[in-house]
Amino acid sequence: MTQTNMKAVGLTRYLPIDDPDSLQDVTISMPTATGYDLLVKVEAISVNPVDTKLRAPKDGVESEPRILGWDVAGVIEAVGEQVEGFQPGDEVYYAGSVTRPGGNSEYHLVDSRIAAHKPSSLDFAAAAALPLTALTAWEGIYDRLGVAPDRELNTGKTILIINAAGGVGSIATQIARHAGLTVIGTASRSETEEWTLAHGTDHVINHREPLLPQLQELGIGEVNYIFCLNQTDAHWKGMAEAIAPQGRICSIVETSQPVDLGLLKDKSASFAWEFMFTRAKYETPDMQEQQRILQQVAKLVDEGVFHSTESERLSPINADNLREAHRQLEAGSMIGKLVLEGWE
Which CATH topology does 134-273 take? Predict the structure, then answer.
């Protein structure tokens, strides 16, 4: 490869998304793969709340463009000397690490230990919808909530997924159902209710109403697990009421105010956070577990068990379309995942 520069979409100032300078088309240097890294030719990307949170208005100016984006599908261009199991030409998908530049660029470096071969049955755009949310959902359900990997052990157990039509919710419902759980999802609009039912929920309730009375109306009552994907503090009291004795709650959304852990004491209920970037950020001994998870997700997709959560596709990948994607995400009514594909 003789190319030394590449296209990217980045920021130098943290501005409201309606400002045309909030995300800009830029040219940056081409990186080189060394060590465990793969150099990937980016074919498609997706957006997540982490993108809008990192881009949100605040003080500070970047001397070099900051590149966001943590959902990528593409083709390996080159590999580092310590890479095993990958070679140039392989099609991969991954979320990457929040401690490194994101994937909103023509070429991108990712640690091979947190990447996997993409589902062969999906095109790049459909595959790009999955990595960050699938990892978040899988870790949340199996690692944080401690759901048994053996379906038979989960017979009769219930999980409540709050905001089941969002990006994480759309794959979490599929994973939970595959685990053998009875899945109750929350939605507040007819279109999100329909989407949720199509993606694996057995029942749907409204997260804008008290949770436990709705669960009781279904004949379910308190649930064994709760996976909170929206407004942890706003739902905290309702979750404490709805969790069964010795049940487990996991959330991916930081609190905006303190919550009372004491509400869980009488039930001996437990609470855990899920942050998908933890393994890569701290290079934990089990960092490669994310590769295994993505491999398993790809297998289940190719077997027709899981389906892509893509809901909208924009082309090409450029600042205009990424600003539109951020705008839709910040509006708070996103269903599934919005993806972008191709470079001009």
Answer: Rossmann fold (3.40.50)
5-130+282-341 CATH fold: Quinone Oxidoreductase; Chain A, domain 1 (3.90.180)
Q: Which residue has the tokens 């999906």?
A: 122
- Rounded distance between C-alpha atoms, residue 216 and residue 188, angstroms: 18
What was the pLDDT predicted at 333?
Answer: 83
Quick one: CA dihedral 192, 195, 201, 202, positive or negative? positive
DSSP string for residues in 232-247: HHHHHHHHHHHEEEEE
Q: Where does CATH 3.40.50.720 sit in the chain?
A: 134-273
For the question of whether the overall pTM of this predicted structure is more than 0.90, the answer is yes
Sheet containing 5-14: order of strands? 24-29, 5-14, 58-67
Across 111-138, b (16+ Cβ under 10 Å) vs e yields: bbbbbbbbbeebbbbbbbbbbbbbbbbb
What pLDDT was estimated at residue 133?
98
